[in-house]
Amino acid sequence: MYAQTDLIAKLSAKIATIHTSPPPENALPSEDALSNARSKLQRHLPSSGLGLEETVRHLRQDIIPGLNASSRSSNYYGFVTGGSTPAASLAENIVTAYDQNCAVHLPNEAVTINVEDRALTLLAELLKLDPTQWPHRIFTTGATSSNILGIACGREYIIAEASALRSEGITSVGEMGILESMRRAGVDRIQVLTTAPHSSLVKAAGILGLGRASVVDVGLQDKPHKFDVPKLKKLLEAPGTASIVAVSACEVNSGLFATSNLTEMEELRKLADMYGAWIHVDGAMGLMGRILDSPTYQTIIDSCAGLELADSLTGDGHKLLNVPYDCGFFFSRHREIPARVFQNPNAAYLSAGPGGDEIMSPLNIGLENSRRFRALPVYASLTAYGKDGYRDMLERQVELSRGFAEYLYGSEDFELLPKFEGKKEEVLANIFMIVMFRAKDEGLNKEVTNRIKATRKIYASGTAFEGKPACRLAVSNWMADVQRDLPTIKEVLGRVVAEWKENN
Ligand SMILES: *Cc1c(COP(=O)(O)O)cnc(C)c1O
């Protein structure tokens, strides 16, 4: 196997052409390509193996044509699917070649965890967060696991806070378990108070033993993404309860933020402090809004103001940061919480030994032990493009979203959702990188997402809004280019309407 280096060089060069070939025309492979790829998959484990050369041929010729354009093209607007910048993609190859295990910080043996820590510091700077205020920081597999970390830390904190009023010493959920610690703390109900939460937040509450039913939506009737503050206050003060307040920044369907300005975050902070609650921000998308600085984006900038007042923050790497899957990140302001929640107990062989710096071993502050070096693509991409490069990428994505929203605003066939009050400019000022809409014709509306997908040219996600089907485009690729991409989107929607009208 070692003697194969020439072959590896040759085959790597072959694979590398994928990086330099032009992006695919269509967001989706044809149905033929899909069924062909599916039929070529190995049915059984081969006994002697196909060998490297044949396997690379199989991947290139059989599997790749069945993949969607995803990161490689900017016309994939499904879910929130980020791309991968060239710097991040190159670094990703190094990650695989060197296959570092990022579990334990071993400063005398490798610089790996120093890179991870520095990548997190650079990221904090990008997001206008003071790294010294966020000592608990770590890369995760994605925003879902970051939300699990947030709820886990919040659970630990709020029970300890409730218990501190009654007994000496720290009541730790991590140590005593949830039942015993709640009993000690005199808490009979834990609630996660939020608005329009992402499904993964509810999943996190389920996994962590709070129960999916502990998540209470306290959104306003007419603005479901925003807090009904009197209702929030009432729930916070209920006796025997401990609360996590989860802020959706921004909400995955509409792209709207739970808070509109610093004052609103300050109000949440005041309430949380009053009732010993923990504030977790799900900023999988919205956190990146903090890098904007032009008045064109003032509404977004204001909506991201004050997020630094939270106790913990979820961020996503593989979305707007445009690094490869799987990469999320998590920041918390509480230095003392992670050891109580995540410490590997009684595993002397995992300890770092004398290191002399302040960097905590990832295995004691997050979910995983053995971990991928997912920090390197982040480090490389932030280094390559800097603050200005990232701002430029995001501005192009917001501009494309607003261009599309403007088209919908003026359209006879489509309606921009949710319905905003005000002049066109005021409406467009709310648009960040998600654009939700429906067809005005009810019949077409039922099919519009599938008809868009059937063109295979662009990809959109179906959703529901106010009890009716809706469609949404999420722009999250660094390649976004208004001049090139907006006409394609309009052309596809125009075609979908024309074909519908012809047949109905
Ligand atoms: C995408 C998303 C998540 C889940 O993120 P993954 O990276 O897919 O785990 C959580 N919250 C919000 C707001 C999201 O947009």
From TrEMBL:
The modification N6-(pyridoxal phosphate)lysine is found at residue 319. Residues 19-40 are annotated as: Disordered. Signal peptide: none annotated. Gene3D superfamilies: Aspartate Aminotransferase, domain 1, Type I PLP-dependent aspartate aminotransferase-like (Major domain). Its cofactor is pyridoxal 5'-phosphate. One of its GO terms (cellular component) is cytoplasm. It comes from the Eukaryota. This is Pyridoxal-dependent decarboxylase. It comes from Lophiotrema nucula. The lineage of its organism: Eukaryota, Fungi, Dikarya, Ascomycota, Pezizomycotina.
